[in-house]
Structures are given as structure tokens and as C-alpha cells.
Design a protein that fits this description.
The chain has 15 helices and 32 strands. It is an alpha/beta fold and 612 residues long. The chain has three domains: 212 residues, Phosphoenolpyruvate Carboxykinase, domain 1, CATH 3.40.449.10; 236 residues, Phosphoenolpyruvate Carboxykinase, domain 3; 80 residues, Phosphoenolpyruvate Carboxykinase, domain 2. Helix 2 runs antiparallel to helix 4, helix 10 packs antiparallel against helix 11 and helix 10 crosses helix 15. The longest helix has 18 residues. It is globular and about 75 Å long. Bound molecules: phosphoenolpyruvate, sodium ion and manganese (II) ion. The site of manganese (II) ion has 3 residues, from loops. The site of sodium ion (NA) has 4 residues, from loops. InterPro entries: PEP_carboxykin_GTP_CS, PEP_carboxykinase_C, PEP_carboxykinase_GTP, PEP_carboxykinase_GTP_C, PEP_carboxykinase_GTP_N, PEP_carboxykinase_N. Keywords: Cytoplasm, Decarboxylase, Gluconeogenesis, GTP-binding, Lyase, Manganese, Metal-binding, Nucleotide-binding. Pathway: Carbohydrate biosynthesis; gluconeogenesis.
């Protein structure tokens, strides 16, 4: 039998500073799952080295050529364990309405019974790792603590990148601390003498959340969002419930710091559905001279209202778990520089020289590639070399544009909140909300056109409110209400950030993009800062406040007056149909959508006028 890692015998006992409740919970899980040994992770470099060596020995990780990319590794997953499994992700609340309608609901008692059975002996022949972690800088008033137990050393090293993991987090858990229990198993016990596989997992998967008891139970997958439970499961699904109860916001948002040529600093938080370029925007390289963008986070923002009524945000994560395909020195040079080394890649292709490759990294693929499953690949193979959801996992501190204040325990003051989707039609480049309520309406109605790839009827709108459809841990209509409440709290204390809607993806009739995107997006961001400073006026339209011609600097973009007009066109008929689609969407919440959002819908309809 292959041993999953070299572990020190002394590591098997709980550190003396571990809180009794943690020790008892770990014992309980170990009694159920029957691992061969228990290891308490301390987060040290030595521990990480040992885990990585073990993962290379068992074949889970391949080392990238260290002369080209030091201390980096490639994991090849099981071919059916490559992405989040939304249909196997559950919210278990006493009342069904508290989870609905965007989550799969299950009765807590029934799910517990099922999980109890599945977890029985599930770690036999494996090591149970105890992974204490802090989400957010340890000691920040916004940070939260948790403990994940897992039988996957790949998950341990990934959690070591994505969170503040180890002894300091464990020390911070005291008898009166509220901490989240996160139990994870790949569900693949080893019988004595049975050889392990590089990526153990189970065809049966359950990613289960119990927000009422602050627990997560994940079975059968080792993939990112299913298994790194600090990320989507805790920092969004469980945290959104904590945020509702405690009056703050846990959001699927990037955070960036923008500095204007005259040295004024602005912080933006922006929500986009998956695969709309959050990581690219967070690492934007401005094409406008004198502007700079620094990165604070690329996926999650935790925000609360401070004493002065300002919204303060932290990036609760310590690393990036980014989509590799499409990332290149042209589209995101900062991400490319970030992963110079110390990076774990999952499901990328490998080059003859032992470095990594994925679609879009270079315009033509190098020869001699091996695909994400380890099979020789040529462009004639008729399938992608890297999995379309191939990932890089890398520490945020390696990012060359990381802001100096990215770990400030107090967080940064948010000046603007931005919502975006991927819309080929209808939605203009940039619109400012007329009020907080209008901004909440824009967030609640974020949408993308379905593509052939995402299933359904092509062109049909897919609503992803606040980009949280898959991540909100309670009733989404109540979540809209929570956003409206936060606005009232800020208004009462004096500070409300501006809200904007953007769309980088509008297309011309011939199917080509109207807007160059990427580094040119600075032009829309610059206009936002001018609105915040009150130095430009705006056009009052049915959709909101839009730029006056000439106020968005287009010099050097190749966007001419005709293209600019198309980017900003409002087709009244199509928008009347869009209003109907929003009404149908609101109706799916069974009367729970707050009145204020219906008022916004009526205002939109009034502004669009009657059909001619
Ligand atoms: C994930 O799939 O684990 C993940 C982080 O999701 P996404 O990139 O879609 O937000
Ligand atoms: Na995914
Ligand atoms: Mn995400």
C-alpha cells in the first residue's frame, strides 16, 4: 500500500493549545471514518514540503520542470471530478423556504443520516488531516475561523495556499469562538494491500451545508469548489447566512484599488458570474496613461458598514484559484507573472520541456503536448489539451500588483460596487444606478445569454443575481432584502458607495465584440471615478445614468462614434421584453421579492414608455 505522506509520529496527537471542542469533534469524525492516522497540520514550510513530496511519490502531482517554473506541480484529476457539482450541492435548513428557490434543499435529519452512512469507514487506509484555517487575516474583526478535516493531501496543500492555515488559526479558536466545522472525504477507503489511485474520488457526491449549525459535509470529490471548503462553501454559502444574521455582506466579488493620474485612490468591488473575467479585471493593466490598478482580491469580498457608514471590505482569501485557459501575457500578464513558481496546476496540458500549457496561452500550441489526462495531444486530436476548467492555485502575495493594504485587518473603504454579466445585446457598456435601490435592482437582475455550451435555448437569458445564484446560503429574495437593509444602515450613518452596471461583451450584428475589453476597461472605471468625484455629468436614461459623448476617453481604442453609439443603444422594444423577463424571474420567488424591487421594475417600464 502506498502511504499518502511522510508524517511525523508526534503530529498525530492534538497540540496542547487545541481547544477541547475541536479535539472532541476530530475524535468523533475519526471514530466514524476510521483513518489509519490523524495528522494535525501546523501550516509550516516543512509540513508543506513533506506533503508535496508524498503527493509526487503517489503520482497525484507531477513536478513542473523546476528550471522553468520552480516548485510547481500539476495534478490530473479523475476525468469526472473536474468542476463544482451544483446538482449535488445541498442546503439543509429546517424550512425549505429558507434555502429556496436557488438551492437544492434537503431536510437536515435526512441528509445527516445519509452522510453518517457514507462517512462510516470512508477514510480507512488513509490519513485524516486536521486543517485549521482563518478566512481573512488572523485577528481581523472581519475574519472567521474554521477547521476542515480531510483525507486528501491535495486538498491540504491547496487550503495552505487559499487560507491562513495552521497552528496560528488553531490557537485563535478559544472556548467562546464560533468556528465552522467542515468535514471532507474523497469517499474512497483503501483495503489492506490495495493500491491507491492518483486522484481518489467517488461517483457519488454530496456537498452539503447546514447553515443553522455552521457545518459543511463534503463527500466524494477532491475538486476545488467541492473540496476546498473555506472557499465557496464557507466564505460564501455559510458566510452569507452569518452576514444576514449579523448585518454584513459576504459576496462573490473582486476588490481592486484604482489610482488616478492625480493620485486619488478608489476601491471597487465587482460581482460577475463565473467566467466573465473577474480575475482579469482584478489584475487589469490600464492602457490609459497615469492610471494604476492594484489587486486586493479576485473572487470573494466580505464587507461591513463602519461607524461612519462606509462600506469596508476585506478579501477573505489568501490565494487565487483561477481558470487557466484563456490566460496569457496578452489577456492577463499579471496572472502569468503571479504563477512564476510555487503554483499548483490542475488539469492543464504539459509541454515537452516539462512546463505547463493551456488553450489561449500561446496562439499556436507547441508540439509534443500531453493533454490534461496524460495522453499525447496534437491539434488534430479534436479535443482541448487542457480541460476548459483547468485551474492554477497560487498565493496572492506572489501577485506583482497586489495592493500594499490587501491584508489590512480593517479592510478598505469601497467607493463603488459594480455588477456585470456577459450580454451580447441590450446592456450598455456602463450605467450608473440612480439610487441604492436601483443598484440592488441591477445586481438582482444580472444576466448572461445562454450559449450552446451552457445548455438550454441559445440566446435565452440566464439570471445570476449578484453572481450569487450558486452561492447564496439562504432564500435569494430575502438576500435582496438584506442588501436593501444594508443601504438603509449606510444612509443613516452618511456614506453610500455608488453602484454601476457594466457589460464588456456587447456584440455587433456580425457577431464581433464592440468593445476591446481587458486593459481598455480602465476607460469605464475612470468614468466611474469622475462620477464619484462629481466632475462629469451624466445622461438620465430609462436604464440609469449614462456617459455623455466624449466623457469616456476612447483615444487609441479604435472605437469610433458609430461603435460608441451601438455600445450605448437602448432598443425600447427589446427592453420591454427584458422587463417582462425580469417580471417572470421575480415571480419564481413566490411573492418574496421586496416591494422596492418591484417599484424599480415599474419605473423601468414607465421610462420605456408604451409600445408605439
Ligand atoms: C470553483 O469552481 O471551485 C470556483 C472557484 O468557481 P468559480 O471559478 O466558478 O467561481
Ligand atoms: Na467551476
Ligand atoms: Mn467565483
Amino acid at each position: 500500500m502506498t502511504s499518502p505522506s511522510l508524517v511525523r509520529a508526534s503530529a498525530s496527537t492534538a497540540p496542547d493549545f487545541a481547544d477541547t471542542a475541536v479535539v472532541e469533534w476530530v475524535q468523533q469524525i475519526a471514530e466514524t471514518t476510521r483513518p489509519e492516522r490523524v495528522v494535525w497540520c501546523d501550516g509550516s514550510v516543512r509540513e508543506r514540503d513533506e506533503l508535496l513530496r508524498g503527493l509526487v511519490r503517489t503520482g497525484t502531482l507531477l513536478q513542473v520542470n523546476p528550471d522553468l517554473r520552480p516548485y510547481s506541480f500539476v495534478a490530473r484529476s479523475h476525468p469526472e471530478d473536474v468542476a463544482r457539482v451544483e446538482d449535488r450541492t445541498f442546503l439543509c435548513t429546517e424550512r425549505k423556504a429558507d434555502a429556496g428557490p436557488t438551492n437544492n434543499w434537503e431536510e437536515p435529519a435526512r441528509m445527516r443520516a445519509r452522510l453518517d452512512e457514507l462517512f462510516q469507514g470512508s477514510m480507512r487506509g488513509r490519513t485524516l488531516y486536521v486543517v485549521p484555517f482563518s478566512i481573512g487575516p488572523i485577528g481581523s474583526p472581519l475574519a472567521r475561523l474554521g477547521v476542515q478535516v480531510t483525507d486528501s493531501p491535495y486538498v491540504v496543500v491547496s487550503m495552505g495556499i487559499m487560507t491562513r492555515m495552521g497552528a496560528d488559526a488553531l490557537r485563535a479558536i478559544r472556548p467562546d469562538t464560533t468556528w465552522v466545522r467542515a468535514a471532507h472525504t474523497v469517499g474512497c477507503p483503501l483495503e489492506p494491500g490495495q493500491a491507491d489511485t492518483p486522484w481518489p474520488c467517488n461517483a457519488t457526491k454530496y456537498i452539503s451545508h447546514f447553515p443553522e449549525s455552521r457545518e459543511i459535509w463534503s463527500y466524494g470529490s477532491a475538486y476545488g469548489g467541492n473540496a476546498l471548503l473555506a472557499k465557496k462553501s464557507f466564505a460564501l454559502r455559510i458566510a452569507s447566512v452569518l452576514a444576514r444574521d449579523e448585518g454584513w455582506l459576504a459576496e462573490h466579488m473582486l476588490i481592486l484599488k484604482l489610482t488616478s493620474p492625480d493620485g486619488k485612490v478608489f476601491h471597487l468591488a465587482a460581482a460577475f458570474p463565473s467566467a466573465c473575467g473577474k480575475t482579469n479585471l482584478a489584475m487589469l493593466q490600464p492602457t490609459l496613461p497615469g492610471w494604476s490598478v492594484e489587486t486586493i482580491g479576485d473572487d470573494i469580498a466580505w464587507m461591513r458598514v463602519d461607524e461612519l457608514g462606509r462600506l469596508r471590505a476585506i478579501n477573505p482569501e489568501a490565494g487565487f484559484f483561477g481558470v487557466a485557459p484563456g490566460t496569457s501575457t496578452a489577456t492577463n500578464p499579471v496572472a502569468m507573472d503571479t504563477m512564476w513558481g510555487n503554483t499548483i496546476f490542475t488539469n492543464v496540458a504539459m509541454r515537452e520541456d516539462g512546463d505547463v500549457w493551456w488553450e489561449g496561452m500561446t496562439t499556436t500550441p507547441p508540439s509534443g503536448l500531453v493533454d490534461w489526462q496524460g495522453t499525447p495531444w496534437t491539434p488534430a486530436s479534436g479535443r482541448p489539451a487542457a480541460h476548459p476548467n483547468a485551474r492554477f492555485t497560487v498565493a496572492a502575495r506572489q501577485c506583482p500588483t497586489i495592493a500594499s493594504d490587501w491584508e489590512d485587518p480593517a479592510g478598505v473603504v469601497i467607493d463603488a460596487i459594480v455588477f456585470g454579466g456577459r450580454r451580447a445585446s441590450n446592456v450598455p457598456l456602463v450605467v450608473e444606478a440612480k439610487s441604492w435601490e436601483h443598484g440592488v435592482f441591477l445586481g438582482a437582475t444580472i444576466s448572461s445569454e445562454r450559449t450552446a455550451a451552457s445548455g438550454g435555448t441559445a440566446g435565452e437569458l440566464e439570471r445570476d443575481p449578484f453572481a450569487m445564484r450558486a452561492f447564496c446560503g439562504y432564500n435569494m429574495a430575502d438576500y435582496f432584502g438584506h442588501w436593501l437593509e444594508i443601504g438603509k444602515t449606510m444612509r443613516a450613518r452618511g456614506g453610500v458607495p455608488r453602484m454601476f452596471q457594466v457589460n464588456w461583451f456587447r456584440k455587433d450584428d456580425d457577431g464581433s465584440f464592440l468593445w476591446p475589453g481587458f486593459g481598455e476597461n480602465i476607460r469605464a472605471l475612470a468614468w466611474m471615478t469622475e462620477r464619484i468625484r462629481g466632475v462629469v455629468r451624466a445622461r438620465d436614461t430609462a436604464l440609469g445614468l449614462m456617459p455623455l459623448d466624449g466623457d469616456v476617453n476612447l483615444d487609441g481604442t479604435g472605437v469610433d462614434a458609430g461603435t460608441w453609439a451601438k455600445l450605448n443603444a437602448i432598443d425600447l422594444d427589446r427592453w420591454r421584453a427584458e422587463a417582462d423577463s425580469i417580471e417572470r424571474f421575480f415571480a419564481t420567488f413566490g411573492g418574496r421579492v421586496p416591494e422596492a424591487l418591484y417599484r424599480q421594475l415599474h419605473r423601468l417600464r414607465d421610462a420605456l414608455g408604451d409600445p408605439a
